[in-house]
Amino acid sequence: MILTNTTVLGTGVLGAQIIFQTAYHGLPVVGYDITEQALEAANHRLDSLVQTYADYFDAGDRSKAQAARDSIRLSMDLADAVKDADFVIEAVPESLDIKQGTYEALAAVAPERTVFATNSSTLLPSAIAPHTGRPEKFLALHYANHVWQNNTGEIMGTALTGSEAYEAVVDFAERTGLVAIRVLKEQPGYLLNSLLVPFLQAASHLLVNGVADAPTIDKTWKLGTGAPKGPFEIYDIVGLNTAYNISSMGDETSKKFAALLKSEYIEKGKLGAATGEGFYKYN
C-alpha cells in the first residue's frame, strides 16, 4: 500500500503546514475547509510558506517551493476534495464532537481504499475510530508546529488499526520529510505533547492564579534552563485557538485560562504569531 494522493482536512496554521510539507516533497495534495474565509486565509498562509521553505531548504531559491505552492488545490466540497485520495489527514479543531462529525461525513464520501489519520494533539484515536467506518484503516499521525524544522511524525494506532495501514503511514511520513516516531500504544498527547502540554498548563496556571505575568514566566524559564522560548512564546506559535480548545477540556483552572484566552485574545483577533499578535506582538 503506497499513499500518494493526499487530502488535508482543515487549513489552519498546522493544516497549512501539513499541506505545504506534503506538496514540497512531491505528492499531490488537496486542502479542504468549510468556508470561503478559511480558504482565503489558507491561501495567505500557503503563500507565506514559499519563502519559509525556500530559505530553509534552498538558500532562498524559490523555484521548488513555488512549484509546490502552485500544485496545491483547495476545495470547500468534501466529496470533491477526497474523490481521488489515498490518504486523508484530518487537522480540524481539537473538539471530539467536531472530529467525530467530520469522520462520519468523510466516511460517506471517501473511496473505500482511503486511509484516514487524525492529527489530534490530545484525543485518543480510539475515541474517533467508531465514526470512521474503517477502523482498520484509521490511526493518528501527529505533526509538530513548524514542521519543516521540527519534523517529527508521531504515528499511533488503535487496537483495530491494521498493520498494512500503519506501515503505509510510516512510509508516507518518511517520504514527506518526517522522522517517523512509532508510538507503541495509545497515549493521550503521544510523546511530544505528553511532555509539552503539562509544561504549558503549569505556566497557564501560574498566570491565571496571579503568581506572575506571561513575560516574567517566560523570562524565568529561559534564564533558568537555557531554553530558547518560554511557554507563552510557545503558546503563540501553537496558536491561541488550539490552546483555548485544549484548555476548555481541562480542570477549573484550565477553564479559567480558556476564558481569559477567549475574552482578551481570541475575540480581539489576537490568535498568536500567525496573526501578528498573541501574548506578544510580531512583525
TrEMBL record:
<feature type="domain" description="3-hydroxyacyl-CoA dehydrogenase C-terminal">
    <location>
        <begin position="189"/>
        <end position="282"/>
    </location>
</feature>
<dbReference type="InterPro" id="IPR006108">
    <property type="entry name" value="3HC_DH_C"/>
</dbReference>
<dbReference type="Pfam" id="PF00725">
    <property type="entry name" value="3HCDH"/>
</dbReference>
<keyword id="KW-0443">Lipid metabolism</keyword>
<protein>
    <submittedName>
        <fullName>3-hydroxybutyryl-CoA dehydrogenase</fullName>
    </submittedName>
</protein>
<dbReference type="GO" id="GO:0003857">
    <property type="term" value="F:(3S)-3-hydroxyacyl-CoA dehydrogenase (NAD+) activity"/>
</dbReference>
<dbReference type="InterPro" id="IPR036291">
    <property type="entry name" value="NAD(P)-bd_dom_sf"/>
</dbReference>
<comment type="pathway">
    <text>Lipid metabolism; butanoate metabolism.</text>
</comment>
<comment type="pathway">
    <text>Lipid metabolism; fatty acid beta-oxidation.</text>
</comment>
<dbReference type="InterPro" id="IPR008927">
    <property type="entry name" value="6-PGluconate_DH-like_C_sf"/>
</dbReference>
<dbReference type="Pfam" id="PF02737">
    <property type="entry name" value="3HCDH_N"/>
</dbReference>
<keyword id="KW-0560">Oxidoreductase</keyword>
<keyword id="KW-0520">NAD</keyword>
<dbReference type="InterPro" id="IPR022694">
    <property type="entry name" value="3-OHacyl-CoA_DH"/>
</dbReference>
<dbReference type="InterPro" id="IPR052242">
    <property type="entry name" value="Mito_3-hydroxyacyl-CoA_DH"/>
</dbReference>
<feature type="domain" description="3-hydroxyacyl-CoA dehydrogenase NAD binding">
    <location>
        <begin position="6"/>
        <end position="186"/>
    </location>
</feature>
<keyword id="KW-0276">Fatty acid metabolism</keyword>
<feature type="site" description="Important for catalytic activity">
    <location>
        <position position="142"/>
    </location>
</feature>
<dbReference type="GO" id="GO:0070403">
    <property type="term" value="F:NAD+ binding"/>
</dbReference>
<dbReference type="GO" id="GO:0006635">
    <property type="term" value="P:fatty acid beta-oxidation"/>
</dbReference>
<dbReference type="InterPro" id="IPR006176">
    <property type="entry name" value="3-OHacyl-CoA_DH_NAD-bd"/>
</dbReference>
<dbReference type="InterPro" id="IPR013328">
    <property type="entry name" value="6PGD_dom2"/>
</dbReference>
